[in-house]
Write a structure and sequence with these properties.
Elements lengths: L1 H5 L3 H15 L6 H12 L6 H11 L2 H5 L3 H4 L7 H20 L10 H12 L6 E7 L5 E9 L9 H10 L4 E7 L9 H15 L4 E8 L4 E3 L7
Helix pairs in contact: 3-4, 3-7, 9-10
Length: 229
Amino acid sequence: MKETQDKPHYLGHRQRLRDRFMATSGDGMPDYEILELLLSQAIPRADVKPIAKALLERFGSLGEVLSPAPEKLCTVKGIGEAAAVALKVVQAAGLRLSRQQIMNKNAIGSWDQLLDYCKAAMGYEKIEQLRVLFLDRKNILIADEVQQTGTVDHTPLYPREVVKRALDLNASAIILVHNHPSGDPAPSRGDIDMTKEVQDAAGKLGITLHDHVVIGKNKHVSFRSQGLL
């Protein structure tokens, strides 16, 4: 009896969470419970429910918890290196899986998957990032590269470098993607002018700019769908 009484109170709760996860694959479980299960692997001898809730209070959604740099995660009480690494590994695994689902496939034919990947990869970034997707003549995605990173509201872009890289890869078309950390994906005047420069430079060498997508928080804007290309 004493051995049962000495067991930490959270062990039964943790087992119930595991049982629910095994039965449902996590469907219907709130973010903090998914975080609890994840953190329990890195912090096996502590009640991680308060830590999970503190992470969500500090950063927001589950996706926003997984996105900060490890050193920033460690500023939350209870999060050490092992827990921070566990969180970042989950993010990396998710992005890798998402990326594998779109690579070497027709980018236009798998547009929704492509957008989901870009949102996951860039939607929570705190600085602007410019990604270029390179396609072959059949619109198969052959490369996905981050070309530039910038500040909270600006990313430098050098059309010559984008075109040179496309030629190196024997790409016939490109898609530009960049994020707006403010959360508002509305293109700026600078975005529009820069896109025109890339389109002109690429077009002279027979490379098509299919689209430029701006990623905001939970939404995006496509230049082509807006009539800007």
